[in-house]
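quick one, 247 residues, struct below
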Amino acid sequence: MARQPDRRSATPKVSLARALSKLGFCSRTQAERLVAEGRVQANGKTVRDALLRIDPDRDRITVDGERVVAERKVYLMLNKPRGLVTTRDDPEGRGTVYDCLEGLDLPFVSPVGRLDKASEGLLLMSNDTRWANGLLDPASHVAKTYHVQIASVPDDAMLERFRHGSVVDGELLTASSIALMRSGGRTAWLEIVLDEGRNRQIRRLLGAFDIEVLRLVRVAIGGLQLGELAKGKARHLTSEELAILAT
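---
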């Protein structure tokens, strides 16, 4: 269950760059550039230190003389295509998930968690950092469901080995559940459910058994299903879907 933060509690101080991101103005990387250029003021004074701790709800922040105020809260689901990176600014110039949002009237939103470049499927994006942190909190144990195509047809014994997990680089990698969906020829599709978010967890787990991952598609987060959303498209979550994620 995703823990719901108490919105009445005092907002903790964060770095100036983080504050601009939390307010939905820009990414932290972009904020750091603005601060370095002397374009950001906090409580009337130009700030050159992007790490300055401030309270985004109480301190007055301006950029180029215009006050930065909190944008409306936005909650999106995106069907991430394979080949895009989950970041705003990529130093290598690769395509990013933000390419899918071009032309949409949106404040700045951040990915809620990540999918690596070779992975695809359901990705949430929002400018509500408290909501996002509640979903990402390891204590919430929000299940994430993946459909994974592998270059092998596992028998029952191999599936049982997958379920027991493997130690990789000193970490015990396991899954909440692993089931065979279908197989044909030399490949098979597995349904894998995780309730924790370690870096490239599925690829590393299967790689420990010399299993090649051909496709990895996230199809659900908690009770929220990707459904028929077209690849590369994004849409707003409904109030019913937000309620599903809160239970």
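The chain is about 20% helix and 30% strand.
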